[in-house]
Amino acid sequence: MTASAPHSILPPPSTAEEAHSRRLTELVQQELAAAGGWLSFERFMELALYAPGLGYYSAGSVKLGAGGDFVTAPEVSELFSRCIARQCGEVLAHTGGEILELGAGTGRMAEAVLKELAARNLLPERYAILEVSADLAERQRERLMRLPEALRERLVWLERLPQRPVHGVMLANEVADALPCARFRVGAAGIRELGVALEACSSSSGAAAASPIRFTEAETAPGASLGEACEEILISLPGPLPGGYTSEVCTRVAPWIGSLGGCLARGLLLLCDYGLPRRHYYHPQRIRGTLRCHYKQRAHDDPYINLGLQDISAWVDFTRVAEAALAAGLEVRGFATQAAFLLGCGIEPLVMQAAEGIERTRLAGEARRLLMPGEMGEAFKLMALTRGLDIPLSGFALQDLRDLL
Ligand SMILES: C[S@@+](CC[C@H](N)C(=O)[O-])C[C@H]1O[C@@H](n2cnc3c(N)ncnc32)[C@H](O)[C@@H]1O
User: Fold this and answer.
1) Predicted TM-score (pTM) of this structure
2) pLDDT band at 114, cuts 50/70/90?
3) Quick check: 176 pLDDT over 60?
């Protein structure tokens, strides 16, 4: 991956944004000092995104949508969420029960899914949202409390996964990519773990003490869990990775899928994210990994700037997700590109049903963005993990499970 936006063309933060970023930077600096001068990238990313009151998702910046830093498929078009609703409806018709959405962003997907299911007379008993960002949960409430009573009364926000077993559907769009990940590099003597240190000029005292705090990349021997994960990756690949090869591993995926799978009594866990099966993810040509930062609609690859003001994410290794699902006793029922999934769920008739003219032209444009390989159609994948569900899933009629496991 290469940066598409060099620093020089990133818009400068406002004075208030700079002050916010400085507070988070100081917090990271304190933790770095307490840890002896080196923090794992995973911990750095966790603080950057989720430090209480200061992290990107914990604090109040706009984040998603046209006025924010990046757009997700539900923000691009309600066609995406209507197709998701159709897949949910197919399952709910068999299982009954509820929908549980993880990380619901601005609430746009929940809104469109509920409306589509109402139109099809397939509303879930409840629509639960589990959101770690207090700021986004507030924005979800603002949007969703405007829905008609019959839909509104089904909504509930959860602090943690439900204690009672879930029947129905669990949804997570672009949540796995927001889980903090570790970074590694292939060195001359083996795997090195990448972490964060202070840039030399800002760690000294005296005149330099007034200079801004800057973080920089620093390598060390890998921690036990990263070392094991890298070994597993390397032996599963068809050939060695070149020296200097840098990439990401998200070891938090397995416990996350395990906890979701543990809750799902019967139904579907539907994940959507940008990612690849492992052997493509760790392709020798992807020498700089998959880490991306999004700031005011620009993508770049420097996580050490604009702390707390920009999103940081990494692609999802879907083989890791599938392995975790199998370990949790789930079935891996489907894996498809976003384009294949949306076509399977009938995105074309949804466009054609719109009145001819401006409305249909608008929807056709949005569908192109969701479907085209150079846009979101190919890089984004959907994965269906099920328990006790043997019905065909329309979204996965054109699936491609090759190389996944
Ligand atoms: C990239 S945003 C995607 C938002 C939304 N799903 C969409 O597609 O527009 C990531 C979302 O996941 C949430 N999140 C991150 N980790 C989470 C977790 N462990 N459980 C639930 N939500 C989480 C974030 O707060 C945020 O709402």
Assistant:
1) 0.94
2) very high
3) yes
Count CA within 13 A, CB hemisphere, residue 268: 33
pLDDT at 370 exceeding the cut of 50: yes
Rounded CA-CA distance 21/13 in Å is: 9
Of 7 and 348, more confident: 348
Q: Which two tokens stand for residue 113?
A: 């899914």
- Using CA atoms, how far apart are residues 271 and 104, in angstroms rounded to an integer? 13
Rounded Cα distance between 225 and 329, Å, is 23
The enclosing H or E element of 326 equals helix 318-327
What is residue 201's predicted lDDT score, i.e. its pLDDT?
63
DSSP assignments along 328-381, one per residue: TT-EEEEEEEHHHHHHHTTHHHHHHTSPTTHHHHHHHHHHHHHH-TTTTTTTEE
Contacts of 311 (CB under 8 A, 6+ apart): 49, 56, 63, 69, 70, 178, 293, 294, 295
Which residues' Cβ are closer than 6 Å to ligand 1?
A: 57, 64, 72, 74-75, 102-105, 130-133, 136, 173-175, 178
Picking from 360, 342, 292, the residue whose alpha carbon sits closest to that of residue 3 is 292
Note the helical H segments in 191-223: 200-203
d(CA 157, CA 130) in angstroms, rounded, equals: 6
| Ligand 1 mutation pick, 175, 181, 271, max ligand atoms within 8 A of CB | 175
The encoded tokens of residue 148 equal 């008609």
What's the token pair of residue 156? 């509930």
Give tens-digit pLDDT for 5-32. Answer: 566 689 999 999 999 999 999 999 999 9
Pairing of the two strands 292-295 and 311-313 = antiparallel
Q: Is 98 helix (H, G, I), strand (E, B) or coil?
A: strand
Residue with tokens 């400068």: 12
pLDDT tier, 120 (very low <50, low <70, confident <90, very high otherwise): very high
